[in-house]
Design goal:
This protein is mainly alpha-helical. The protein has one domain: Serine Threonine Protein Phosphatase 5, Tetratricopeptide repeat. The chain contains seven helices and no strands. The N and C termini lie far apart (45 Å). The mean pLDDT is 81.
Length: 108
């Protein structure tokens, strides 16, 4: 039903966020990515969509994409332990030592 609603109501960002959230909660991270990418594109300040997108990227080992998305949360001063944890992991796998350090020592 969410897919059908998303296809017909193209201006409804909330529907796409819910679709991405459903796929994320199901552990279907590859299918969560497309709707979440669209939400982040439409609403770049959506912390929830950006965080879920970063997690989904990380879970499918797209660490460079995860770093790019999650680093913007850090720049917006969103420093929750969850964001820092996933950012640190993705930065480590992406071999971005400076960002890995920053995620592990957020006081800087």
């Amino acid at each position: 039903m969410l897919r059908k609603a998303g296809a017909t109501a193209t201006e409804r960002t909330g529907i796409r966020l819910n679709l991405g959230l459903v796929e994320y909660k199901r552990g279907n991270y590859p299918d969560a990515i497309a709707p979440l990418e669209r939400v982040v594109k439409e609403k770049p300040d959506s912390v929830q969509a950006r965080y879920l997108l970063g997690l989904s990227y990380s879970f499918v080992e797209r660490h460079a994409d995860a770093v790019k998305v999650l680093e913007q949360l850090l720049a917006a001063d969103v420093r929750s332990i969850r964001v820092l944890y996933v950012l640190g992991i993705s930065a480590f796998y992406f071999e971005n030592e400076a960002l890995d350090q920053k995620a592990n020592d957020p006081a800087d």
